[in-house]
Automatic annotation (TrEMBL):
It is a multi-pass membrane protein. It comes from Aythya fuligula. GO terms for biological process: protein transport. It comes from the Eukaryota. GO terms for cellular component: endoplasmic reticulum membrane. Signal peptide: none annotated. It is found in: Membrane. The chain crosses the membrane at residues 20-41, 53-72, 179-198, 205-224, 250-273. This is Dual oxidase maturation factor 2. Belongs to the DUOXA family. Keywords: Glycoprotein, Membrane, Transmembrane, Transmembrane helix. Its main location: membrane. The keyword Transmembrane helix applies.
Amino acid sequence: MTLFDGVYPFYLQQRKHFVFDVSTIIVIIVFLTFAATFLLIIPGIRGRARLYWVFRVLLSLVVGVVIVAVQFTGDWESGWVTANTSYKSFSTVMVKADIGLHVGLAGVNVTLVGNPVNQVNETIDYNEHFAWSFDADYDHSYSEGLEKGLPSPILYVAEKFTTESPCNMHRQYRISGHYASATLWVAFCTWLISNMLFSMPVLIYGGYMVLTTGAFMIFSLLSFSTVRNSLICPIQFGTESLLIDYGGSFWLTLVIGLLCFVVGIAIVVLHYFNPDLLKTFFDLHEVRTEDCQEMTEVYINPQFMSNTQSPPQPSRIISSGM
């Protein structure tokens, strides 16, 4: 961590983007593949049903991809501050930089970007991820950062979330993140069930499952929001404070959850007050009409009909005299 021949320590590492990582990109690609596959079927659908079918598929895929993708994003809470701060430990060198904190369900990302980027003969552009998922050890990641010689602002922010910190922020965020993640996976299961019910089709129960999906998404937000009920340690850089607030993933989950409520309520209301419109939207009228047309087409054997329509001939009984 100290200077070595006047040169700051240099280390090689994998840096993770604070919003998108490999897992998020894989999820998006998988759902885009599903969307492209379904869109290839469009030419085989006739009339107005084509528009309804595209709307149902795209809406369902949007809900599914959001439920899964927000599990891996790192901006459920986010905050930035611009401050003059020391760059390395045991050094009096000061730099002006933008310091960011981005909290996800599985860990935190701390960013440090110089303002300007090139200062003290270095390119100051850092982004470090510290995970607290079940298979990760946050304190070990922090110890590795100390050994690598990370800049002081990153270590200062990351230290607030260690298990030994008196702030107790690690326990608060870790538990709330785990409960929010588990609730989102339940929402994903109910989303799958709703799609199966719509395809059977059992529209009213599919609507109920869409409402359940929205409810579990809102429950995940409530689970994550419990962190706000606890005191948060201040993160000070001189006279400047790093304040964090709800980020893009939080608000996106809220919007999709409310959208599920709207869709579910609309399906339930239409089922009881205007079932014909609901069946038209799900393309059920045309299916029933085609089924009736197929049932009316009956092939008759003419020879069989002529035999059944001709009157039976009386049988003659010839008796022989004795």
